[in-house]
Amino acid sequence: MKKLTKILEEIEEDGQAIGFDQVSDRNVGSLLATLCASKPHGEFLELGTGCGLSTAWMMEGMDSHSVLTTVDNDEHVIHIAKKHLSKDKRVTFICSKGEEVIDSMIEGSIDMIFADTWPGKYHYLEETLVLLKVGGMYVIDDMLPQSNWPEGHEEKVEALVQYLYERDDLMVSYLSWSTGVYVCTKIEVKKKEPNQWNPETYNKHTGFVSALALPVVDLLAPKKDENILDVGCGDGTLAVEIEQRGAKVIGVDTSAEMIDSTKAKGIEAYVGSVTDLYYEDEFDAVFSNATLHWVRDARTAVQNIAKVLKNGGRFVGEFGGEGNVHHLILAIQEVFAYHPEFGDFENPWYFPSVDTYKILLEEEGFAVTYIEIIPRPTPMEDIGNWLDIFANGVTSHLSVEQYEVFKKEVIEILKNKIYSEKDGWMLDYMRLRMKAAKK
Question: What pLDDT, in 10s, does the model give residues 164-186?
Fold first, then answer.
């Protein structure tokens, strides 16, 4: 400890000589040393070397098998750190932009990150957190109000803290002493089962699904007192629209959360699948929007729809058709091919052509009165939200770290395919819309 005290004093003196006034608090330094000591054979990352004060503390806690990478883009201050600490082969000094170093590192490889600069703290945060192992720690200080904060910085601090608490893969602890410290530990999060969607999240990011389906409701043309089954009713938005036109609707969906949302809107609804319907000859019409492309066993689905309809009853629906999200599927396939550790890509979607689906309907006793593929380029605020909601059938078996790699690489591929500065993200939707009657 005596040796460390001497090094710290020498670093502070050299820093003052060049006018560097961002001195690390020694209480925080002691905490960093303690945390590093809890990770034998650890791999550590410091973002914002400065003159090396925090670096020295981290090295104090590291065992002989641990390594530390420390980054700063100011060659004058990092020169001081290297002068006093570079003889220790456990530490690697990099004078570079933090973003470049973060991008060069392997996801899930770091035991602890001390982020003391903007990259990895107030921006590039997602890319930084994905570097942590499960059980790894993310540490930040200077979170209590300080006199040298520029205007508007307090709002950035509040937004950062809120973001950390909202993540479900971090256990967050706040230490309201010294300069204000947050210690966050990465935890393993079990991914949701496929199609178990949160209605609030679904509505927030994919409200276009229901909004663009009103022409399908018009095609259904619900009549007063008709009994209509809404297969894949989601949160019940379209079921409400149908009932407002005079019909009585029963909703069915595989998601219990969506059924709860539908019931809250006053619609009778049950958890169930189109491949396992227990009704028979009960409905004047079956309606389905944005659901049947999730059902790989399309024949069983059509057979069940025919079973529940009265003779002459109509089946009206819209779902993904041939060519739907073509670029997105190719990007997913490419990422899976590049990462054999992800396993085989199993396409969860059924996107038939007009001819394929028309033949299927006719073979199962329907007379098709209308069917076509409708190109529908659809704007999306953030393609990452689409992947979070709709790609869970592809990625539910991946670990949290693997999913972050998957998401990042798919987005990077799609930037050159379905994104432009002018229009933003534009999904290449192709919808199969149809109307048929049970013979």
Answer: 988 889 999 999 888 899 999 99
φ/ψ bin of 97: left (φ > 0), alpha (ψ from -120 to 50), beta (otherwise):
beta
pTM: 0.56
Cβ within 8 Å of residue 241, ≥6 positions away: 214, 217
Question: How far, in Å, CA of 45 to CA of 43, rounded?
Answer: 7
The answer to whether 137 touches 184, Cβ cutoff 8 Å, is: yes
Under 8 Å between Cβ of 130 and 108: yes
* Domains present along the chain, CATH in parentheses: 2-186 (3.40.50.150), 199-438 (3.40.50.150)
Residue with tokens 């957190």: 129
pLDDT band at 212 (very low <50, low <70, confident <90, very high): low
Cβ proximity of 24 and 57 under 8 Å: yes
Which residue is associated with the tokens 């090094």? 7
| Residue-wise burial string across 209-245, b where 16 or more C-beta atoms lie within 10 A, e elsewhere | bbebbeebbebbebeeebbbbbbbbbbbbbbbbbbeb
- Percentage of the chain exceeding pLDDT 70: 93
